[in-house]
Amino acid sequence: MRDAAPAITGLRDVADPNKVDPIHQFHINKLIDLQIGGLDFSFTNSALFMVIVVVLTGAFLVLTTSSRGLVPSRMQSVSEMAYEFVANMLRDAAGTHGMKFFPLVFSIFMFVLVANLIGLFPYFFTVTSHIIVTFALAMLVILTVVIYGFMKHGLKFLKLFVPSGVPGLLMPLVVAIEIVSFLSRPVSLSVRLFANMLAGHITLKVFAGFVVSLGAMGGIGFAGAILPLFMAVALTGLELLVAFLQAYVFAVLTCMYLNDALHPSH
Amino acid sequence: MDAEAAKYIGAGIACLGMGGAGIGLGTIFGNYLAGALRNPSAADGQFGRLIFGFAVTEALGIFSLLIALLALFG
Amino acid sequence: MAADHGDSEGQPGKTGGQSARDNGLENRLRQLDEKLASRRTAEQEKEAAWARNNKSGWANAVRLSSEFVAAVIVGVAIGWVLDKWAGTSPWGLIVFLLLGFAAGVVNVMRATGQMAEFGQQGGGTGDREK
Predict the structure, then answer these.
(1) Contacts of residue A196 in chain C, CB cutoff 8 Å?
(2) Between A163, A167, A184, which is nearest C74 by CB?
(3) For the whole prediction, is pTM greater than 0.80?
(4) Is C82 touching A (CB cutoff 8 A)?
(5) Where are the domains of chain B?
(6) CA-based nearest residue in chain B for residue C80
(7) Which terminus of chain C is more exposed, N or C, with fewer CB under 10 A?
(8) B8-73: CATH homologous superfamily?
(9) Is B54 within 8 Å of B25 (Cβ atoms)?
(10) ipTM for the whole complex
(11) Which residues cross the membrane (chain B) (predicted)?
């Protein structure tokens, strides 16, 4: 257990406890420098872990379902459970019409979930702890909703912003509020995921840092280090829960927003 | 004093008003919780009023945020 | 005695035969009911579990505060861009910050189930703006 502590902190320099830097894990390093037309297209560690997440997810799903049997093997049931889980979620929120968005929702759910889980490994980079990544995912969802809504319903989609049963005088005010409320959706969607992952990883690292700095003191510090060590272990469990919960929340809200695109005026 | 510096200091002072809103919100939610623990069955019915109190209190905090933003960007 | 006995045995036997058919139907109906009921309770339990999960303090707190703060941020951003673009400083910022605040309260009310979702009656919104 004591050996695991430095591994959890992800510290390069364990001997010097003053170097504990909880933010260090979020640094983006360029692995391959690449400039195209004055734009920075460098392959960073963030991009590397995105590729890892996609490859891992794809390989897992393909391998476990390639030799599919009527009686599923263990790993095949995992894939099937993931499928059933997302399918039920989507069907509950958006009805059977919503199933045409199943590939989108399933991809987003699996990407966020696997990215969150992979980030929990020591030394690994957490893709979803950068707001630009989560914001891009949220914008993908919202743009899908808006574009599909206009394609399907045309200008009737704008009815989304006009609640019924509002006196005429208040209408402009209410419509403006609804529009701002709608526009705040991608922001809150992305900020929630980002803040959860960021805060969780920093807390984890701060407590693990306590273990290192107390342990370096020797003697009493060694005994005192046990408390934050247990805290770090408990927080890792909590982070597992948060990783799953946030992926779930992200997917559920995606389903709800897609429902608005499918049925703008209930 | 540099005008730019005065701007930032003014924005910071304006943000102190948010502290008042914070105290108010703490009072509101604390009292709601105290009441809800005494009579849990009535708690759900009063949730709307809790949100109303939250909105009115937070509105005053938002005014000081507004002044701060105006000092910064206005 | 014997006839009586036979009769008394026959009658129940007859009615038993009839009621056996009835019983069969009833049994099946009951079984169907039970199945439906169990499925319904299972679904209700699932929903209840979801609601309980949803109410886990930290997740809920982050959800509500992010809903509120996001709306305010978006309001400020819109107002600021509008001011830059149309030169209406500082009115765009003021108006859209207040709108963003109202939208934030609406968001919180939606998230806590105090208000209908998008596209349904929104009577409460006007009052909140004051």
Answers:
(1) 62
(2) A184
(3) no
(4) no
(5) 8-73
(6) B73
(7) N
(8) F1F0 ATP synthase subunit C (1.20.20.10)
(9) yes
(10) 0.80
(11) 6-29, 50-73
